[in-house]
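Field reference: sequence -> structure
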Amino acid sequence: MQDHIIRASADAGHIRAFAAYTKKTAEDARQAHNTSPVMTAALGRLLTAGALMGSMMKGDDLLTLQIKCSGAAGGLTVTADAEGHVKGYCIEPMVLIPARPDHKLDVAGALGPGYLRVIKDLGLKEPYIGETELVSGEIAEDLTYYFAQSEQTPSAVGLGVLMSKDNTVAEAGGFIVQLMPDAPESSIAKLEENLRLVKSVTDVFKDGKTPEDLLSILLDGLDMTVLEKKDVVFKCDCSAAKIEAALISIGKKDLKDLIDEGKEVEMGCSFCGKKYIISPEKLVKLYNES
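Structure field:
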C-alpha cells in the first residue's frame, strides 16, 4: 500500500478527521538518519503527525513540529506542507534504551521531560507559534493536549510505528479526529465509543486495513464523507545553492579561515542526511561573492 492521507468529514460537518499510512515515509527517514528502533518510532510518529497536520493547511503554508526534551533523544524536528511532503530529523539518532515492561519501544523514556512547539507559517508577517509541555512523551497524547490547550479544539490523536525483527519499519500511520464547537453530545458519545475499538493504529494496518478503513471504524454511525486523498512522501528540498548560501552567512572571516586551510568542506543536510562537498575553489568564489 502506498503512503497516503485521507481527509474526511462526518456528522454533518460536526467532526473532521484525517488518517494516514506512512510506512515508507518512516522507513525512508530511518535509512536517511540510521536511527535506532526507538528513535525510528519517535521520528516516524512525529513525521506522521506532521503529514496529518500539514494536510490541514493550504497553499504554500508550512508547518514545523519541534520537540525539545531532556532525555537521551535531545529533540526532534519535522516540517510538512499541504501537499503531503514531510521531512525531519532527531538530534541523537542512535539512542539505545530498554523496552517498556510491555515489550514496546520506550519512546517516552527516550524523550524525557520537555515541550512540544508547533510553528505555522501562514504567509503572514509573523508565524503562529504554540507551545505546550510534553504530558507523556508518547507524542500522540502530547498532540492531543496541544490541540486542547493551544487551539481549543477537542481532538483524538493516534500514532504508531511497528518495527520488524530486522529493525526496518513494518507498519506506520496515524489519525487525528477533531470535534467542531457545535458537535452534539450524542455524536461525542458515539465517537468516544468508536475510539475504544482502536487499541493500536499499527494493529489496524497489520490486518491489511487502509486509512479509509481506519476512519470507517472511528466514524462508524456518524455518516462519514471522504473529501480528499493525497500521497505522502519523505521529501527534502535541500540543494547545493542553499548549502552555499548557508556558508556565505557565516561571514567573511570564517570563510577566509576555511580557505586558508586549503581543504574541501563537507556539509550535510540535517533533514535528509545528504552530503555536499565544497571545493577550495568554490570557497574562494563564495568569499568573493559575499
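Note: The chain has a mean pLDDT of 94.
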